Amino acid sequence: MVRLSRATLSRVAPAARPLAEPRVTGVVHLGIGAFHRAHQAVYTERAMAATGEDRWGICGASQRSTDVADRLRPQDCLYGVRAGDEVRVVGSVREVLVPGDDLAARLAAPQTAVVTLTITEQAYRRAPGPGATPGMVSSASSGTASGVASGAAAGAIGRLVAGLRARAAADAGPLTVLSCDNLPDNGATLAGLVAELCEPRLLGWVGENVSFPATMVDRIVPATTPADLDDVAARLGVSDLGAVVTEPFAQWVIEDRFAGDRPAWDRAGALLVKDVRPYERMKLRLLNGSHSAIAYLSGAEHVSEAVGDPAFAEYLRRLMDDDLSPTLDGLDGFDLAGYKESLLARFANPGLRHRVAQIAMDGSQKLPQRLLDPARDRLAGGHEPRWIALAVAGWMRHVTTARELHDPLADRLRGDGTAGPAATVRRLLAIEEIFGADLRENRVFTGLVTDCLERLNAGGALLP
Ligand SMILES: NC(=O)c1ccc[n+]([C@@H]2O[C@H](COP(=O)([O-])OP(=O)(O)OC[C@H]3O[C@@H](n4cnc5c(N)ncnc54)[C@H](O)[C@@H]3O)[C@@H](O)[C@H]2O)c1
Ligand SMILES: O=P(O)(O)OC[C@@H](O)[C@@H](O)[C@H](O)[C@H](O)CO
């Protein structure tokens, strides 16, 4: 079958062709994975279509491999997004850079006004040790602020800082940097990590010229499978190695604090607000918290199968109702009950082959914001977060028994397989990077997690 490209677009049904054809690159994106292609790139294309502007083309940068570039470059960076039964070719991406390409030059270009990032939670991790560089876990000892300045060896945030340095030198104007990763306070978190890597003069320039608004992003985008590619090709009539499959739902809430110009994302359905935090907590705790519970407790291969089991769906309801939603505030007038039911319906979507193994990855970087912060809130109010404790016990069982463990802390998480539940809980709760210094001291929490792990190991029922 002929490959998707500008030259073969005429074979695609008119209704499935791109909505916009940008002529200028105004956005640089770090970490051009599946999520960016199905979320920010779609909003950006719709924004251009709504305004007629053609200056918000995207330059995507792959940080770690040439895979996405190898797929998209032969297709003139066009790719299909299938949401439900609808497939459309997206035209907002203009260029994909690979490691070694001059990312700093793109960040320093005056027409670049916005940088977006989806570099995964672990890329924001502060590696242990003095002078460590975020996203540089394995080479922490060589990461100093001046080492980052030299560029190539540093992680994604180091490369962003190198770009900011080039932009400051070129006096290329203000820039907005938007973290679109599933982290609490993602804007402030990123700003803090950037600040740690800036020398004083650059820090002054960043303070005056760069903003880091917080964002809440939502759209379930599983990793694309070969079957997805076949399906999209059949629907488009051309082969497409960059396709992504997602759900019809999409949400983007952005703190309205831009340093300069931006695409009209509000015209594409994004919500620009003063304070993202209530939305961000709601989504990280209810959606992502439930996702992690599914990943460590359900035993299913895909999310839809897990929620198809009525007993497991009931567990998720109790987790959300009893332990997670009571920790949310600032949502007056918002239909929280409707939101929770809509999450279960989204999870049940049989068209999304969302593997629980994908969600289970890097749990040490996800648990704190998804499940441990709400557990703290409940404990502080004198409540027993038993459903959260069950999910945490599920994670403990996972990290101590998984044949392959994908986690930056894997070496510290694996056990020798001989310890009993109480010793396992004690050992894992002592990892401060995950549990802080407080949870291991909390008798209620320790007791709940130990009971749950005993029950799980004994093959006990999830619901008492
Ligand atoms: N997929 C979703 O449903 C979804 C929804 C909301 C938010 N997100 C956010 O987007 C992130 C990426 O999801 P995805 O589905 O695109 O994943 P993906 O695996 O398709 O892409 C991940 C991208 O991040 C880069 N990356 C990975 N580790 C990195 C590191 N240490 N430093 C720098 N870059 C790194 C990869 O090179 C790749 O470009 C998630 O971790 C999450 O924070 C995803
Ligand atoms: O993408 P991660 O690895 O942060 O987490 C896995 C899922 O929980 C997540 O991707 C959700 O699908 C997404 O956050 C929905 O908006």
TrEMBL record:
The Mannitol dehydrogenase N-terminal domain, residue ranges: 26-266
Domain (Mannitol dehydrogenase C-terminal) ranges: 275-456
Organism superkingdom: Bacteria
SUPFAM superfamilies: 6-phosphogluconate dehydrogenase C-terminal domain-like (SSF48179), NAD(P)-binding Rossmann-fold domains (SSF51735)
Catalytic activity: D-mannitol 1-phosphate + NAD(+) = beta-D-fructose 6-phosphate + NADH + H(+)
An example molecular function term from Gene Ontology annotations: mannitol-1-phosphate 5-dehydrogenase activity
Keyword Magnesium assigned: no
GO biological process: mannitol metabolic process
Signal sequence interval, chain numbering: none
InterPro entries for this protein: 6-PGluconate_DH-like_C_sf, 6PGD_dom2, Mannitol_DH, Mannitol_DH/Oxidoreductase, Mannitol_DH_C, Mannitol_DH_CS, Mannitol_DH_N, NAD(P)-bd_dom_sf
Protein EC: 1.1.1.17
Family that this chain belongs to: Belongs to the mannitol dehydrogenase family.
PANTHER family to which the protein is assigned, alphabetical: MANNITOL DEHYDROGENASE 2-RELATED, MANNITOL DEHYDROGENASE DSF1-RELATED
Name by which UniProt lists this protein: Mannitol-1-phosphate 5-dehydrogenase
Organism of origin: Nonomuraea zeae
